[in-house]
Amino acid sequence: MKEFIISEVKSETAVLVGLITPTQDERKTKEYLDELEFLAHTAGAEVVKRFTQKVSGPSSITYVGTGKLEEIRAYIQAEEEAEREVGMVIFDDELSAKQIRNIEGELKVKILDRTSLILDIFAMRAQTADAKTQVELAQYKYMLPRLQRLWTHLERQGGGSGAGGGKGMVGLRGPGETQLEMDRRIILSRMTLLKERLAEIDKQKATQRKNRGRLIRVALVGYTNVGKSTLMNLLSKSEVFAENKLFATLDTTVRKVVIENLPFLLSDTVGFIRKLPTDLVESFKSTLDEVREADLLVHVVDISHPDFEEQIQVVEKTIADLGAGGKPMMIVFNKIDAYTYVQKDEDDLTPKTKENLTLDELMHTWMARLNDNCIFISAKEKTNLEELKDVVYKKVRELHVQKYPYNDFLYPKYEE
Q1: 337, 379 contact by CB (below 8 A)
Q2: Do 183 and 311 have their domain in common?
Q3: Which of 81, 147, 216, 235 lies at a 20 to 30 A Cα distance from 3?
Q4: Residue 77 has pLDDT above 80, yes or no
Q5: How confident is the model at residue 176 (pLDDT cuts 50, 70, 90)?
Q6: Chain centre distance of CA 107
């Protein structure tokens, strides 16, 4: 069976394609393509060109219009003539089998969409048997509706099983269709096996959680690449893998943390991202069970990101979709050392925008909005780390006393 998802890092050049629509303006499209470029870089590709088109919505046939597709094809041909081969074209939205087939027919290069790119990174990051199983299941879910295009090289073959002596299409069953049916059966069988394996892993993890004793569970959640793993390392004094790339953490890590006289469990979870497919969330159900089982969610936000407010909304929606929306939560605004703003001229009388707010103004705004249920830190520079520990201590102690009134672990402070 032909593979079409990259399974190893290759230094390939890539072209990005995105749409400007009534619901997604030029600024937002640029931000999405910036994120797509970061994804491509994480997967090992180098982006050499971007194409955008202003349309009312994606074309069901080729995603972009025929004129824009011709422009992309002309660019790829020009690069090839200059001996700078373009390895792939990556689209910012999920493509259907029909769209992929039509685009490939025109551009004659590898076509990826945002989902397949994320799956590639997941496959590259997966270390444990659990993560590898979840990634494989997500890949098969993505592959199943797109199987038809994998066998288009056989569609002209086929014999005269039809009534027209081999010329008609009625009753024609060529080898392409036979192979398609075989692949579909193999994939469905494999998916059933993977689901059974994940069910076993779920049982094992549930047993592990029961055996963790009477400890409050705190889960770090947030958008990908906001500094959750760095914060995990600081609080737990452990060495969880942290890197300035998307989805550096794929496997959930749980550590026992003690602040003053209070022990609790801290887990670092996989980061969320915009346009994350439902199938992917479903495949990572067992990994995200740590979020559902947590007593307190610590939502880490990269305040230096220009679109951090939308990232907050994405995370909150994903948490709600997981059924963990009503849990106690606090927000930790990270990377205050990297925050920048545009200072307005004194004679500029127009209202301030989000880009013109100083860090102090932003802090006061969010603290007023969240009733002080937030804190501003820099995990990299260890700024306000002690203040964060104090806040976490108070929240965890309050939850511990409520959940375990007999105080199994909470021993008095020495000064008390």
Answers
A1: no
A2: no
A3: 81
A4: yes
A5: low
A6: 28
Burial of 299 (0-12, 13-18, 19+ CB in 10 A): buried
Kindly state whether residue 293 falls inside one of the protein's structural domains.
Answer: yes
Are 187 and 101 members of one domain? no
**108 and 190, same structural domain?**
no
Give how far the C-alpha of residue 225 lies from the chain's centroid of Cα atoms, to the nearest Å. Answer: 10
Total number of domains in the chain: 3
CB 85 within 8 A of CB 13: yes
pTM: 0.78
What would the pLDDT profile of 97-156 be if each residue is shown by its tens digit? 899 999 999 999 999 999 889 888 888 877 777 778 888 888 888 888 887 645 444 444
| Residue 365: domain span | 214-403
Within-domain flag for 6:
no
Average of pLDDT values for 369-375? 88
Do 370 and 261 belong together in one domain?
A: yes
| Alpha-helical regions (H) of 87-167 | 97-107, 114-125, 129-143
CA 187 to chain CA centroid, Å, is: 24
Instruction: Give residue for tokens 């444990």.
Output: 128
The string of DSSP codes covering 322-345 is TT-TTS-EEEEEE-GGG---PPPP
> What are the b/e assignments for 100-115, b being 16+ CB within 10 Å?
bbbbbeebebbbbbbb
Q: Which residue has the tokens 């001996």?
A: 83
Residue 62 resides in a domain: yes
> Rounded mean pLDDT of 197-218?
79
| Alpha-carbon Rg for the chain in angstroms | 25
Per the CB < 8 A criterion, the answer to whether 395 and 350 are in contact is no
Structure tokens at 302: 């990269």
Q: How far apart are CA 100 and CA 63, in angstroms?
A: 9
* pLDDT at residue number 283: 64
- Clarify whether residues 343 and 219 are in a common domain: yes
Q: Tell me, what's the pLDDT at 245?
A: 55
- Residue for token pair 């947030």: 222
